[in-house]
Amino acid sequence: MDQKLLQDFFSNDRFAAFVGVELLEAAPGRARARLEIEDRHLNAVGVAHGAAIFSLADLVFAVASNSHGTVALGVNVSVSFMKSARKGVLTAEAEEVSINSKLATYLIRITDEDANLIALFQGTVYRKREALMDHMPSEG
């Protein structure tokens, strides 16, 4: 699927936009996004909230898994937090690990500006028979 079309489609992810996630790249089976940590992203002890980190990872998971033009919906995810982050920019990169006609698995690495591993996210999607294009907003 065309990278521009994919980025346009996922610009409609209102929750990711609300959180402040910015999609940087999209390619078949891959995606990269960033999140600049702001006060609103901090939990009660002053570190980036797990939900903010999860939201960053979840967007690249969605983009990478839908990049083949087939609707893909998450059926299972797990996340492991390795290190806390208090400020700066986090980057998430998704990589396709395996894919077949029904299932695909992705590994997402979340790092800080110094390339420290903040979290690992693994997700599996169910690949429906529907074309992603059928869900594109119509213009006009």
UniProtKB/TrEMBL annotation:
It holds the Pfam family 4HBT. The keyword Glycosyltransferase does not apply. It is an enzyme of class 3 (hydrolase). It comes from the Bacteria. One of its GO terms (molecular function) is hydrolase activity. Keywords: Hydrolase. The keyword DNA repair does not apply. Its EC number is 3.1.2.-. This is PaaI family thioesterase. Residues 46-118 form the Thioesterase domain. It comes from Thiorhodococcus fuscus.
